[in-house]
Specification:
Distance between the termini of chain B: 21 Å
Helix content of chain A: 25-40%
CATH class of chain A: Alpha Beta
Radius of gyration of chain B: 22 Å
Number of strands of chain B: 12
Low-confidence stretches of chain B: none
CATH superfamily of the largest domain in chain B: CheC-like
CATH superfamily of chain A: CheC-like
CATH topology of chain A: Chemotaxis protein chec
Mean pLDDT of chain A: 93
Order of helices and strands of chain B: EHEHEHEHEHHHEEEHHEEEE
Number of strands of chain A: 9
Shape of chain B: elongated
CATH topology of the largest domain in chain B: Chemotaxis protein chec
Radius of gyration of chain A: 14 Å
Shape of chain A: globular
Oligomer: heterodimer
CATH architecture of chain A: 3-Layer(aba) Sandwich
Largest interface: A-B, 38 and 36 residues
Number of helices of chain B: 9
Structural class of chain B: alpha/beta
Helix content of chain B: 40-55%
Mean pLDDT of chain B: 89
CATH architecture of the largest domain in chain B: 3-Layer(aba) Sandwich
Largest sheet of chain B: 7 strands, antiparallel
Low-confidence stretches of chain A: none
Strand content of chain A: 35-45%
Largest sheet of chain A: 7 strands, antiparallel
Structural class of chain A: alpha+beta
Order of helices and strands of chain A: HEEEEHHEEEEE
Distance between the termini of chain A: 8 Å
Chain lengths: 153, 287
């Protein structure tokens, strides 16, 4: 797993979130995993392909998802993780991955990204790679978002 | 749904009959048939078809000249050329005259319907185009692949997904689609069906042991193969499209909600003796 290919995803996260009104996220953890990721409540999968292929997952608790959706909607209260909040989280994942794709292009690697797939539930696992993948934990105002990145070499 | 009117322009009576018989059981209705350019222009003005199929060889002017004359009375006319020859020069001249699409004789029913659907996008709506041009292909490939991968027969049903969420208990392989149109496919089933199917895929007996990891990997690979085949088939029909797929991501567990508020999606169900295999095909809105 080449770290060079992972930085564009982390950079996208730290660049895009402040543009949506969040304080600059801090990286609080980074591990190389080979077990399936466990859903924390809300997990969005975005696939990419072309010069490199893989998947990225944005994995967070429902509380964090509601906090992010609320901030994205100019502080509108989000009581339940409803369709509008789900759209906001999908859109954020789309923006993050599109920004990462732009960062990858700067490295000379063209990628096209799929539409995000949003999954909700507390009792499931996510498998994005047959091999190792990188798990980065980002802190946004005390809320943790796990980013799982798998790139097929 | 309102019928879409088609005018068929061809000097051969057999060719005209072939096109009308292909469209007989569809949402297209042949509103006029013309055997030469002059008749085509007159009938176009009279019947105002939504789309025209145009032969290249006409007795009084060729199909390109006939297209120019129709465009003179309706600059928005949608015209698809169906001719025996299809080369770069003809396509270039045709495009300049305003021909939207080119098909070579003999035309298959699917090819003709898909092309007309795409041409009439604004007239028939995105949902119908997605269903006829993409989802039916996914459904056919699913059915064929269940035979070739698992050796099982199935009954297929297709319905537009009216709810914004899917409920998954078991396993779901999610495969992204990039290109035009963009979207994603989810192939999912319950655990019992997953074990039965993956054992069939690996040539094992029902009482043999198979780990959860291996069973999930088998379903993931099957989902990947089915989606890949369907996308290749669609790319073969629409030469100007290039859809590609992303590697599968798999979710495994119970009470999983797969939410897609942004997608126009369709549920395909394959009923098999091992249980139901579900495939949801979703496309981004506004393509």
């Amino acid at each position: 797993m080449d770290v060079k290919l992972v930085n564009p995803f982390i950079d996208a996260f730290t660049t895009v979130l402040p543009q949506m009104g969040f304080p600059t996220p801090q990286r609080t953890g980074m591990t190389v995993n080979d077990q399936n990721a466990k859903s924390q409540g809300v997990a969005v999968i975005v696939g990419f392909t072309k010069e490199i292929r893989g998947n990225v997952v944005y994995n967070m608790s429902e509380d964090t998802a509601k906090f992010i959706a609320s901030t994205m909607m100019m502080g509108m209260p989000v009581e339940s993780f409803d369709e509008m909040a789900q759209s906001a989280i999908s859109e954020m994942s789309n923006m993050l991955t599109a920004n990462a794709a732009t960062n990858l292009t700067a490295l000379g690697l063209e990628v096209d990204i799929s539409t995000p797939s949003l999954t909700v539930g507390t009792d499931f696992q996510i498998k994005i790679s047959n091999e190792q993948y990188l798990c980065v934990v980002m802190d946004v105002s005390g809320h943790q978002v796990e980013i799982d990145i798998a790139v097929q070499q | 749904m309102e019928k879409v009117k088609v005018m068929v322009v061809d000097d051969s009576r057999i060719s005209r009959m072939m096109v009308s018989s292909m469209l007989a059981k569809t949402n297209f209705e042949v509103c006029a048939m013309a055997e030469n350019s002059a008749e085509a222009v007159a009938l176009y003005a009279k019947t105002k078809p939504d789309v025209v199929t145009m032969d290249m060889n006409l007795p009084d002017a060729d199909g390109i000249e006939c297209t120019r004359r129709i465009h003179a009375i309706d600059p928005k006319a949608k015209i698809v050329m169906i001719s025996a020859m299809k080369d770069a020069k003809l396509i270039m001249q045709g495009r300049m005259a305003g021909i939207g699409s080119f098909l070579q004789k003999p035309v298959s029913t699917n090819e003709l319907i898909d092309t007309l659907m795409i041409m009439c996008n604004e007239n028939v709506g995105a949902v119908a185009v997605y269903r006829e041009s993409y989802v039916t292909t996914f459904a056919k490939v699913l059915q064929q692949s269940l035979v070739s991968i698992f050796g099982i027969q199935s009954e297929i049903e297709i319905a537009q997904n009216e709810e914004s969420v899917l409920h998954v208990d078991g396993v779901a392989a999610v495969i992204g689609i990039v290109g035009e149109p963009k979207g994603r496919v989810a192939v999912y089933m319950d655990s019992e069906t997953m074990y039965s199917l993956s054992k069939a895929m690996l040539g094992m007996d029902p009482q043999d042991d198979l780990s959860a990891d291996e069973a999930e990997a088998a379903i993931e690979e099957a989902g990947n193969i089915i989606t890949g085949r369907a996308v290749s088939r669609i790319n073969d029909v629409f030469k100007d499209k290039e859809m590609r797929i992303t590697p599968p991501g798999t979710v495994i567990g119970s009470d999983i909600i797969l939410s897609n508020p942004e997608l126009i999606s369709f549920n395909v169900v394959a009923k098999t003796s091992y249980g139901n295999v579900y495939m949801n095909v979703g496309f981004a809105r506004g393509v």
